[in-house]
UniProtKB/TrEMBL annotation:
InterPro entries the record matches: DUSP-like_sf, Papain-like_cys_pep_sf, Pep_USP48, Pept_C19_DUSP, Peptidase_C19, Peptidase_C19_UCH, Ubiquitin-like_dom, Ubiquitin-like_domsf
Region (Disordered): 611-642, 885-938
GO cellular component: cytosol; nucleus
Location within or outside the cell: Cytoplasm; Nucleus
Highest taxon of the lineage: Eukaryota
Biased composition (Basic and acidic residues): 900-911
Protein name: Ubiquitin carboxyl-terminal hydrolase 48
Lineage of the organism: Eukaryota, Metazoa, Chordata, Craniata, Vertebrata
Residues annotated as domain USP: 89-417
Family statement: Belongs to the peptidase C19 family.
Organism of provenance: Parambassis ranga
EC nos: 3.4.19.12
All residue ranges annotated as the DUSP domain in the record: 459-554
Predominant location category: cytoplasm
Amino acid sequence: MAPRIQLEKAAWRWVETVKPEEIRQEHIELAYRINLPACKRGTCRRNCKGNPNCLVGIGEQAWLGEIDENAFHNIDDPNSERRDKNTFVGLTNLGATCYVNTFLQVWFHNLELRRSLYQCHNSRAQEHNIESDYEPQSICEHLQYLFALLQNSNRKYIDPSGLVKALGLDTGQQQDAQEFSKLFLTLLEDTLSKQKNSNLQNVIQQQFCGQFSYVTMCNQCGRSSALPSRFYELELNIQGHKNLTECVTEFLKEEKLDGENRYFCESCQSKQCATRRIRLHSLPTTLNLQLMRFVFDRQTGHKKKLNTFISFPEQLDMGPFLEGKQDQKCVYELSAVLIHRGISAYSGHYIAHVKDARTGDWYKFNDEEIEKMEGKKLQLGIEEDIAETVKSQTRKPKCSKGYHCSRNAYMLVYKVQEEESSDPSRTSVEVPAFLQRLVDQDNYKFEEWCCEMADMRKQSVDKGKAKHEEVKELYELLPARDGEPYEFIPLEWLKKWLDDSTATKEIDTSLFLCSHGKLHPDKVGECKRVSLQAAQLLYERYSGGPRLEGSSLCRECVSERCRVLRLKNQLNEDYKEVSNLIKRTLSDEGYWVGKASLRRWRQLALEQLDEDEHETKHSNGQTNGDGPHNNSKEFETDLSEGTEDDMKTFNEDIVCSHGGLSILDSERKLVSSEVWAKLREYFPKAPEFNQNQESCQQCLTLEQEEKDNEAVSKMMALEQKNQLLNLFHEKNRPTLTKWPQGTDVLYIVPLFFVEEWRKFIRRPTKSSPVSNVGNTLLLCPHGGFMFTYDSLISGDAQHIALLWPNEWDVISRLFMVDQAISIHCFKETTPSGSTTQYTTQPELCWECRESFLFQQQRDLREYTQATVYIRKVIEDKRMIKDAAPELNASSSEAEEEREEPPKVDGEKDPDFSQSQDSAKRLKLSDGSTASSAAPVTNTTKLGGIRRSTRHRKLRGEKALIVSANQTLKELKIQIMHAFSVAPFDQNLSIDGKSLTDDSAALGTLGIIPESIICLKADEPIADYAAMDDVYQVRMPEEGFKGTGLLGH
């Protein structure tokens, strides 16, 4: 079938020869595409939306033919959640709790620990009513219940969230697994020690606790002292070692104590050189060996993982390392290996390989997934492939028989080797009756859930089979045959009816109706023509409406569309004709047309036609001057001015706000009646003005009033300028730094008043005249002045302007003044010499002044998105001349900097540091003072030279955006990216004070907006991009702070 656009054009091709009043039924059926041939299955890759008779590709493929009943539901087989025979139960990962799951599985397979936990007294479980859910409280109760479920649950995996919640662990944050093991065993030991059963109080010590002592020997006198200690695991350094024996040997080796680290000998009564070593006395039944893979990196200040291969045996003889107690069993068998997948200490995944004590089989525990190893052998396999992305990867060494090699193992669990026994009780642990009752309750709920899921699957299958039969029956009836009654059904409804994943709603055709209540011609592509018999069955089963039968074809809409399309086809010809007619000399009565309307009349006509045919799409018609038929340069030039993007109605651009003809002659053009008649065909409602129409009288009156007002403003501005000429030109201005002779009083007005007044004088017709002086802006609520003489000299003068007394008299006469403000100079002669004092009227309000200063300081320390400048210096504190060019300065900023006046020779500007080559300087004689005063926005310096308050960045200096609550460490990261200097090589200072506290906020360090921070680098680093992984901004590690593991 032809594409949709071609079908649409073919449906309306007849309008070229048929006028609206000549339309017959055959034309209406052509417009609605009634007689298009239906598509056959296999000929269309997808449904033909332009053909209402195409019923292929609407979703019927899934229903025609045989269907597997599993396609009728999306419910997994509940038996897939059931525990397989002779397998263990997994644990759900709650987000980042895989490290918890691995230890729980290891401890569960410690039969002695499990047996002891089952013996713990638990009155809550023993008295529990099975009609409600069991909720353990203590750690022992949680572990009891969890182990019982792991042993006898029917589920494939269970949820440990009860225990995790009781411990207060963050399920979204991965923690240190080794630290968790230590803290949890300590907590469990403390809990069990409170049991009444004395056999349970020392279970943790019996299983995991060994003894060693720190032995120190004086090299001088040979005296030996021992400090006994207990251990629950041995923490073995793996750096620089290849096998477990080397790690244990280093753990026990002698350490020399000399220099500042000498030992105080009790016999010698002085510090002496000595040797210290660890002496192993006894080993536990379960020996936990922690391989210290996660170490602290001094360079970065964070943990990192050592991906070193370590070889370890299946059978470990600890006899050579043990001193004394020769009767102790020293041969151990490997029972568990805990693995960390990943190359980073802050991410990755934990799994456990555990040996079944009953059968000797090895299992891999990966959260919910449990895999049995073949041949009763430990197979690490893919666990060693995870870290292959490490750049400095080493080849895996070959392992001898009975040995294993891993670079991801972080904990090895060895069990003391037992003699083979025929007693089955040693390897079997029975779940107590009170716990088994709780497990049976959970198993019953699981079986109930399985039954519910099976019933839901069956209901879905039955429903699907019924729908299958319905579709096969109705789809055959859908095609409408020629000459037989038919109806239109929405295509989207048919698709949803054939989509089993959505509920079938009633048939809604209201969105497809035209304004006459019939099927809109534009909507026929979104409907399908079906037989009356099929439509009847669909409406009976699903209801809906209104029904669109053969009588629903709208003659009115087809007639209107015919008119619009004929006008569209005629538009190009009319456009050419209008363009030619406009160039002719006017011979008869003319009409006023807006030039903007003439430029856009073709596009406006297309938009008007589109609106008439109720289409939502917009025409892309070209504007006048862009079309291929316009050859008139004169016409194009004549209409080139003005903007008409917002124009909605033709000729509205010459209608004034009063509804009359606009007074702007330059925006309209006189056209002939012939041109106007053509335009009226497309815009019958356009405003009409013939050439005798007078312009709007109201607009003319307003225009004259505006001219009169401008004349008055010019006269006012000229009069004020003549009376205040020096103030306007900034000549002969008084200054506070050098009080002028001949007067003891100066007057103060807001700088804002002077700036607004100058604007008015310069452009009296464009600016509003200034009527009053708002001096209350400079006063506090109590009527007191807000500035002191000293503060005005030091910078506050940028808010005010100083006036001579005669200027104040003029201003008082010309403007309304709410409050006079003056500053007075008094000279007193005393025996010690003459002194000068300054007072203001009104007097200073000290209370408000102090409050103002406090708020000012507060604002400087509570800022966001402020700019500070980083200036890189070398040894002699000078700027680096050949620094990198500015990357964040725009070309316009550079222009501004070049235009600024140079600095005064010798000016001590804290924001400026010259290099040896020195910048160009401007020298002024002592007598030449610039005519500058306080009334300008730039602060006044000695000698009257003013400089821009905008910071002038030097070459090599960079601006950074910071906030007051940002830490110094975060600022160093920004500096690292800007200057290629690592944070640990940065020495920062401000005003000579070093900045060293990385955790301190910038506001507390005295860094305020526009501050200049000096950067001195220890050494340059070329490749700073590689440092992103080395120095990252991290939240401080809090570990298990605030959790139940620390007693909170």
